Amino acid sequence: MKILQICEDIPAQQLGGLGKHVVALGNALLAAGHDVTLMGRSEPDYADCAAEIGFNGPFIAGFGNPFKGWKEGPMGLFNPWKRPYFAKQIAKAITAHAAGFDVLHYHGHHPMVAAYVPPGLPFIQTRHDQGSECITHMRFRAGAMCEALDPKVCAQCAHPSPGPVRTVISAMAVQRYRNEAAEAFERHPVIFVSDFLRNNFMRAVPQAEMSNSRVVHNFVDEARLHKARRDPGQPIRLQAAGRLDGAKGIVDLARLLAPRLPEGWELHIYGDGPRRAELQQLCGDRIVWHGHAHQTEVLEGLSRASAAIVPSLWEEAFGLVTLEALRTGLPCYALARGGTPELARYGAHGQLRLFADLASLADGLLASAPAPLEVIRGESADTHLRINELLELYRRLPAQGLHA
Fold first, then answer.
1. What does the pLDDT look like over 341-351, one tens digit per residue?
2. Is 60 exposed, middle or buried, given 0-12, 13-18 or 19+ CB atoms closer than 10 A?
3. 295-303 and 320-328 helices cross at what angle (nearest 10)?
4. Would you put residue 151 in left (φ > 0), alpha (ψ -120 to 50) or beta?
5. Strand partners, 308
6. Superfamily for the 222-366 domain
7. Does the pLDDT at position 214 exceed 60?
C-alpha cells in the first residue's frame, strides 16, 4: 500500500510522544514492504531534525506552523475561527497531495481536519489526546484534572477571570470546535488510542455519531527495548521521563521523594520543560537530571532501571512511557487515571502498580525495593505485529468506513 502519514508535530528539534509513535509506525510499515511518506510542517527545516526524528522514508513539507498567531494569549480568549482556519489549511495540503496514495492517515491536534477533507478520499485519523473535545488537548486546569463539560467553563483556560464577553466568545469557540469534531468523526473513520479517550469525547458530545470510530492501542517497537537486568551490587535506580511541567507530575514527585530516598537509591529523570529550574534545585547525589535525551538514551537507561515511574497528574490518553516500561519488564508506578489502567494487559499481574495520588505513589514505591521481572509477560505491543490491526482498517478505505 502507498501511505501518507500526516503530523503537525514533525519536524521538531525535540520529538514528543506523538511524533515518536508516528515515526515508529511509519518505519514498521516500511519494513513490512509498504510505501510510506511523512508529511508535516515546513518549519523548522526537516534536514536539521532528521537525526532526532529517525524516519526512514521521504518527507513532504506540506503546511506552515498551525500553532502560531491569532494572539489568543494577549486577548484572553479562544478565537472561534482560529482552529477551523488551521484545520482547513492542513486539509487543503492533504487533499493536494492525495493523488496516488491508498491511505491518508492524520495524527494531529486538529480533529476537525476530517470535516474539510472530501468524503471520497481514503482518509483516516487517530486521536492521541483529549483534543477531540478540549481546546487545550489536556483537560487539565489550575493544576488538576478538569471534569467540566460546559463550554463556558472552558473560558477560564484562556483567562483566569474571563468576564461575560470573553466567556461568550470562548464558549462559542469551544462549541464550534466540538461540533466540527463530531462532524469530522461522522464523515471519515477515526481511531482513538484508548477506550478512555473515546468515552471522554462521548461524555462531552453525547449527540455525536460514533459508529465510524474504533479503539486501537498504540504500539512500541519492542526490538528497540532491552530486557531490564539490574546488577544486585548497583543502587536501586528509579527512572521517570517526560516534560517537566505541572501536568506530568515529575517535579512534584521528585520533591516528595528528595528527603525520603533511602541510601543506595537513585532517581534518574529525563526531559525538559518550564519547571527545569525547580528540578535542578533538587538534584544531587540521588536525584540525577539528564535533560532532554534521544529516545535511544532513554531506553538504555530504562534497561538499567529497577522501576519506572509515570506520575502524570493529568489523564494520560495512553502513555508510551508506561508501555515501554512494561515491555522492558519493569514494575511501573503510576496514577490510576485516564487510559493508564488499560495498559495492564501488556504486563504481568501486578506489574502496573496504580495509586490514587502522588503521596500514596511515593509511599508504595518506598515500601520495598523494586526489581525487574525475570520473565516479560503480558500481551505483545510490538509495532511489527500490531500494525495488522491498522492495515485491516486501511483496507476498508475509503468507500464504507470502519463500520462496514
1. 999 999 999 99
2. middle
3. 40
4. alpha
5. 239, 332
6. Glycogen Phosphorylase B; (3.40.50.2000)
7. yes
| Beta-bridge partners for 160 | none
130, 132, 113, 107: which is closest to 7 by C-alpha? 107
**Residue 298 C-alpha from the chain's centroid:** 17
C-alpha cell read off for 280: 535542578
Nearest to 13 by CA among 39, 42, 64, 51: 51
pLDDT digits (tens, 9 = 90+) for 58-101: 999 999 887 777 889 999 999 999 999 999 999 999 999 999 99
Decide if 82 contacts 72 (C-beta within 8 A). yes
Helices (H), 40-79: 46-53, 72-75
Residues 372, 330 contacting (CB under 8 angstroms) = yes
Burial annotation 101-128 (CB, 10 A radius, 16+ → b, else e): bebbbbbbbbbbbbbbbeeebbbbbbbb
Neighbours of 379 (CB within 10 A): 15
Q: How far apart are CA 60 and CA 46, in angstroms?
A: 9
Q: Which three cell numbers stand for residue 266?
A: 537513585
3-state secondary structure of 183: helix
User: Contact, 103 vs 1, CB < 8 A?
Assistant: yes
Instruction: Name the residue with cell 510510506.
Output: 36
Cα dihedral across residues 307, 357, 250, 278: positive or negative: negative
Centroid of chain to Cα 137 = 10
Q: In the structure grid, which three cell numbers stand for residue 200, read together?
A: 471522554
Positions of CATH 3.40.50.2000 in the chain: 2-219+384-394, 222-366
Rounded-to-5 percentages of helix, strand, coil across the chain: 40, 15, 45
What's the rounded Cα separation, in Å, for the pair 118 and 120?
A: 6
DSSP-derived letter for residue 37 is: E
Q: What is the pLDDT of residue 389?
A: 92
Residue 398 has pLDDT above 80, yes or no: no
pLDDT in tens, 222-239: 988 989 887 777 899 999
Instruction: Note whether 218 and 197 are within 8 A (CB).
Output: no
> Which cell numbers in the block locate residue 210?
460514533
pTM of the full predicted structure? Answer: 0.93
pLDDT tens for 151-185 read 999 999 999 999 999 999 999 999 999 999 999 99
Return the CATH architecture of domain 2-219+384-394: 3-Layer(aba) Sandwich (3.40)
